[in-house]
Amino acid sequence: MVDAYPLDMSHYHRVFNTTRIPGQGRDELFTNEKGRHVLVMRNGNMYVFDVVDRDGNLLKPTEIQAHLNYILTDLTPAPAFPIGILTSENRDMWAERRDKLVNCGNTDNLRLVDSAVCCLCLDDASMKKGDDMLHSLLLANGCNWWLDKSFSLHVSKSGEAGICMEHSWGDGMTMTDILGKIYKDSTEQPQVHPGSVAVAVDSASAVHQLQFNLDSVLKNGIKKANDNFDLHVSQLSIDFMIFGKGGKETMKKNNLSPDSMAQLAFQMGFLRMRGQTVPTSESCSMARFKHGRLEIIPSATTYTKQCSNAFVYQRDQHSVQQLKAMLCQCSSCAEKRSGIVYTRDQLMALRPPSFVVEDKPQIPKELRRKRQGTKAGVKQRMKRRRFKPCVPAVITGNVRSLANKMDELEALTRTQREYREASIMCFTETWLHGLILDSNVTIAGFTTVRADRDTTAAADLQTKHPGAFILITGDFNHASLKSTLRTFHQYVQCSTRDRKTLDLLCANVTNAYTSTALPPLGKSDHNLVLLSPSYTPVVQQQSVTVRTVRKWSDGAMDCLQDALETTNWSALCEPHGEDLDGLTDCVSDYIKFCTENSVPTKKVRCYPNNNPWVTSDLKALLNKKKRAFTAGDPAELRSVQKQLKSSLKESKDAYRKKLEETGEEPDQGCLDCPNIPLNNNGSPSHLPEPLTPLPTSSPSPLLTPYMDSNIPLPPTGLSFTSGQVRRELERLNQRKAARPDGISPRVLKSCSRQLCGTLQHLFNQSLHLQKIPVLWKTSCLVPVPKKTHPVAPSDYRPIALTSHIMKVMERLVLSHLRPLVSPFQDPLQFAYQPKVGVDDAVIYLLQRAYASLDRLNTTVRVMFFDFSSAFNTIQPRLLRAKLEKMQMDAPLVSWIEDYLTGRPQFVRLRSCVSDPLMSNTGASQGTVLSPFLFTTYTADFQCHSETCHLQKYSDDTVIVGCVENGQEDEYRDHVESFVRWSRENLLQLNVTKMKEMVVDFSKSKSPPSPVCISGKDVEIVSFYRFLGVQLDNKLEWSTNTDAVYKKATSRLYFLRRLRSFSVCSRMLHMFYQSVMASTIFFAAVCWDAGIKAKDANRLNKLIKKEGSVVGFKLANLDEVVKDRMVLKLRTIMENPSHPLHNTVDKLRSSFSNRVLQPRCSKERYRKSFLPSAIRLYNSSKPSQ
């Protein structure tokens, strides 16, 4: 604060570790705050070494002195082609040369240069005061500097020093202040001096010299840059003057403005050189302005012109008093700024739109173009006609293949009013088949209906719905409808093919339509026909919506960080005491207040059916095609159609390249996130270890002034550090939307350093009071459809959206709860466990089944249970009792109980929001703790015997019973026990969705008797889809293969469409791996060994087709699955908690590292996972 004015500090973070990166047409500022090294240049050679250790502390001055001595004594000669000279080139040329450097393998070296703290230039020559010093600091020889750095410190051999600043990141006043502090500190408190002895350090390993790879193009570019630099230096003259008297203080004593006098001096110099005065650009470098800078372009006033003429041409005609009076008038006029003054941004906004960078030009009101008037009364006339009966507007025609014309149809729907406002578009001769999905021929805003021809359809419709409005349309070549449809009227009166009317539309209403011919779709030889209602109906059209979004930029985030950094959190938190809800509301409102005042907003217009590749040129061609068709010029129509086809391809190619370039750029927000290995299912192969504090320096007094003094240790014995909170904040996905508390995760992640202390205080306060703020428990329920076309509320899955801050706390609590509860968890619970997934659940079920069926007179019965809203039926009272049995701390149990009770919930469906209700039962789906709490809630029912076991995957529960000689008592007892346990724990079983599968290979088998639950028999099925894998009662995989083949074939269409758009092979392979390979190889380790040869050949042929589309050979089914089976077996052997670990461990050989084969009397068991994986494992690992 200065004179009650807040100072802007938004550019101060770019003082260090900042580089101006050249680009074509526009440069970018790059700042890497994690850089710890400094760039040193000497004789054109470039060196880097760290000046900050890993803990953020500066190295000792004597160590830095030792590293500099090592550089000064380095005998490496000056390079023949120093790349530093390239920074003095034209920016576009330098951008090309930099791209060439990257292509030659210099990316790492450039990254070190860009992220350096600053640049230190050591000149072997001595500087003499005067002109020589100016030349040395401003020009030097051009080879021993890097002009793109935020600032460079030049030091000569004789000790003279100066700073050269790159001005785009901030004001010169900032560097002037820093230079003054450097000079004062180095002269008054020197850390080293010429007589200082450097410490003995290994500078050879600490100092790294950068070596660049240069080709002939770069060498010629460096040579040309050197010549250009010498040419510019030879044409530039520099002079300076030292004023012994005068200056700013003298001007102020005489009531003259120093700024106005400087501008007046420029005017006088320009008048002497060019004979005229002009507007000048005045840069006000003051921190009182936003971003620390304000540039205005004031016009030359009459006082300026008179004063300049008097001093330049009429000096002898005026006295000293008169000249002084003129100076006072100029100064006074400049201070008042009378008249209209345009800023630089306003004048730049008048340039053509292609040169405007801002989203909204700041054009002055008096210079704006007046909008012309529009026709009035259209809406009123439409309102007067809105209650008339209406018939749908129809577009019909023969298209001769529809799939390859969808691009043009989408563009027409986007740009042409006739297509956009049509109610029905009916096309014949579409050439569609079963492999083309409905989604591939669907237009946004329309519902696709496909049907084959039926000769009795019209008669049946008339019989069932005699009063309905019926349309019949199609290509009726050589057919007459008068005798067949006597009550229908034909409305197509224009020609549809050449001069013939072949495409007709008949309706059972008179005077309904008027027909208009439209251009054909693509190269079809039939025209399209628009059937417009005889009167103008009110068309329900999706209007253009206007959304208000925030403009997240580096400057806005810096401003927000400064606001939160300078906040006295003690003043906000201490008045609330133990009022946790009031404290949470206060902190949340303050964060939102700072966000609203720091991050600007803008309005975005969202158009319906707005395809991103439809450009203005494409719209013009569509209109040109329409005009050519209306004029009846077939030659022009063919020419325009050819141009349209080419333009469609070019527009899509341009959009494709844009997406590819976007995909190649790394996501800066994910660079600091840890990599969690995934298993074959895509689930984490292991979970992170419990959180540990980050190595940080001492906390800021503004962030944690009250953490240790005011809050006692929570009775749970659990407390969080600011480092743990900060690490979880940095892991948030900033692309997610704000939740009910209104705080965006982008704010939490970007301002993690500023907010971690306050949130730590809130989290520990919550644990201490055993209470969760109501704001954090408030959930917005969004219904997600379970089916493609939901018809009932049960067809939706309620997903709860809760506060991101609460999710951070849940993750911290979960890392503490998991090791406490793990000894009591069900060992056959395969969900949310480290290194265990869907594959393991299916493998374990099949292993028990195959091993049992390998014995004589054995039948396997599998009961698949289904819960109704399992997560929503958790009872907090029962869960509390179970947690207390697990010897969990009572205060932590109370905190969990409060987490499950008193949760305000409301439902949001599009723009409709329901009234909130209070929920005291269940754990909302979408929260972090809900899966863990559900598995803990169901952990007390465990069943694992030699002939019967119960296994779980979240709420998917299965009981597998091995029945020998018809003895089913144990199996039925376990089923009854589980049903009784579910009833006692208030878990509702949906008997209608429960299924049972019986696997029996005996020759004389009798029909199994069904199991009765709650008075209903459970249906016995021949196949069942368990965790995405199709199981059948013969343990064959034909049904599963058919499902995989069908799904992969339908996705092959999209791969071919991408190939038709000339997408590169790398992107195609990425699409294959993420969309198609995930489908084909899903749980393949479970079924590949037992699959039939014909089914394997089908899948391999499909993979071969996909490889031909991608452009190179892909690994077939056997190659992929063999590696995965061996990897899965090794995972089982290395994981003692895996249910199959003991089974495999007993088979290990005591003499070698091989694994013995289990005894298999049946071929089906021999082809199952475990024996097959053991064979592959032994063949890949030689015996000792």
Question: How would you summarize the topology of this molecule?
Answer:
Layout: E1 18-21, E2 28-31, E3 37-42, E4 45-50, H1 61-72, H2 91-103, H3 107-114, E5 119-122, H4 131-138, E6 151-155, E7 161-165, H5 172-188, H6 203-206, E8 208-209, H7 216-234, H8 248-253, H9 258-274, E9 282-284, E10 294-297, H10 302-312, H11 320-336, E11 342-343, H12 344-348, H13 378-384, E12 394-398, H14 406-415, H15 417-420, E13 424-428, H16 457-464, E14 471-475, E15 489-490, E16 503-507, E17 513-518, E18 528-533, E19 545-550, H17 554-565, H18 569-573, H19 580-598, E20 601-606, H20 616-631, H21 634-664, H22 707-710, H23 722-730, H24 745-750, H25 752-769, H26 774-777, E21 779-785, E22 796-801, H27 804-821, H28 838-853, E23 858-865, H29 876-885, H30 890-900, E24 903-909, E25 912-913, E26 917-919, H31 930-937, E27 948-953, E28 956-964, H32 969-984, E29 995-999, E30 1012-1013, E31 1016-1017, E32 1019-1020, E33 1023-1026, E34 1029-1032, H33 1038-1060, H34 1065-1080, H35 1084-1087, H36 1093-1110, H37 1117-1134, H38 1141-1146, H39 1163-1166, H40 1169-1180
Helix pairs in contact: 9-10, 9-11, 10-11, 17-19, 19-25, 20-21, 23-25, 23-27, 29-30, 33-34, 33-36, 34-36, 37-40
